Amino acid sequence: MADRQDNTLEERILKLKKEKNAVILAHNYQRGEVQDIADFGGDSLELSQIAARTDADIIVFCGVHFMAETASILSPNKTVLLPDAHAGCPMADMINAEQLRQKKKELPDATVVTYINSTAEVKAESDYCCTSANGVKVVAQIDNEEVLFVPDQYLGKFIMAKTGKKMTLWPGYCPTHADMTPEDIIKCKKEYPAAKVVVHPECRPEVIALADEALSTSGIIRYASREDVSELIVGTEVGIIHRLKKENPGKKFIPVSEKAICYNMKYITLDKVLRSLETMTPEVKVPEEIRVKARAAVDRMLAIV
Ligand code: SF4
Q: Could you tell me the pTM of the whole model?
């Protein structure tokens, strides 16, 4: 239960949010108390789409930098605040626009598909964006034998296995998901033999091979609500367990690894949310030239799914 001081902090945030006509969005990997104060929780695309639809003037994005950028891409007339400017994504930073331009020169006929976990300038160099939820669908409809997929090699491998399509993969990865091992799953299964296993497609193929399903965070949340699921071993960032427990009282959720923590996601605290609303910083704004190109790649994805 939150203590008195936290309550005061929460009240101040809610008051300021109302005064400034702001909306607070929190990714499923955020700290529990940040998820609890948010107007909406979800994955990065869901949250950006919500942000684009609301009539709020200000979006406080409790997530990492590329997510705030995506909100800015979709909502250019709104002020997008990221309560800690240092909250980045190590995977998104594994490729920059110049590196992608070089790779495109090597593969001039390739269609470039970019995971939404990427910077705006990389999206701007891409033909399509995709998410972990719709990557298979996006790639399956591409009428080109040559596809370059960036930046997550493991999501790329998962999509290749599902579509049978060969792609050139950029060697990026999410350190939080790539650290999970088959041994972690085997250990959990021994302890909870009746539990189902779901993992995120950012995990390594040998981890995915041991799961009942590989799903996006929104897919995991839907799966957990199924009537036939009472115990679930969950292979993604541990922050999601907070929401799973809250929405499914009485069910048991077991993280594949307690060490699966994205520290960048945890940079956002209630104090920083309050300070951000008070100072209207740090703001994330994608320059218009990049925004328009990145938006085109996102729109091509949205036209498919
Ligand atoms: S969990 Fe992985 S992909 Fe998601 S923000 Fe953290 S490092 Fe990036």
A: 0.95
